[in-house]
Amino acid sequence: xxxxxxxKKIMFPCPTSLxxxxxxESANIVTIAWVSLLTSQPPTLGISVGTRGFSxxxxxxxxxxxxxxxTVDIMTEADFCGIRSGKDVDKFRETGLTKMPSSIxxxxxxxxxxxxxxxQLTDWRIIGRTNHFVGRIVETHVDTNLLKDPEDIGxxxxxxxxxxxxxxxxxxxxxLGEKTGDPYQIGNNLKR
Length: 192
Ligand SMILES: Cc1cc2nc3c(=O)[nH]c(=O)nc-3n(C[C@H](O)[C@H](O)[C@H](O)COP(=O)(O)O)c2cc1C
Hints:
The protein is mainly β. The chain has helices at about 55-60, 75-85, 90-95, 160, and strands spanning about 15, 15-20, 30, 35-40, 45-50, 65-70, 100, 110, 115-125, 130-140, 165, 170-175.
């Protein structure tokens, strides 16, 4: 048996990402759980940003942003960036998070986030009360000490990374559990 609720916005798990837009002098951070890779060639992602906050207009003005994946260690700071507006506070100053210059875009990255994606705005549209921004990923940074093989981005030590997971709908932060299998392989075990 199932209980039906009609149209609801419930989806989990989501990465807790911190989106930065602006310059080294004027950057703002917004917590965004609605983020998704869109295409692999060119590497492109999409983020959904409400029209009533500070960040939507700022991204349209700046034409770039960075996506920084939060860890459990900065849960309180990440939550703060999701409950306060850049209209009212300097979130870098209030949280103590550290901005670092990006390589290509003007928006800075966050030092405390082990994975940082530099994005150039390529498209956007409003659906309902939300801006949908498409960002082409033009550079990717990973903390070197988390790489088992310094030449392979796929060798990130996920346990050491300890990403902060957001459970939408239920409204909980969680950490990742254990590895359960090898994607694109384990399915071969199903013999027909
Ligand atoms: C865990 C979490 C996830 C959030 N995800 C989103 C999101 O995906 N899209 C969005 O527009 N707002 C999201 N928010 C709310 C914004 O972060 C919040 O409205 C923020 O204060 C806007 O800041 P700004 O005015 O500086 O842009 C989230 C908040 C939290 C705490």
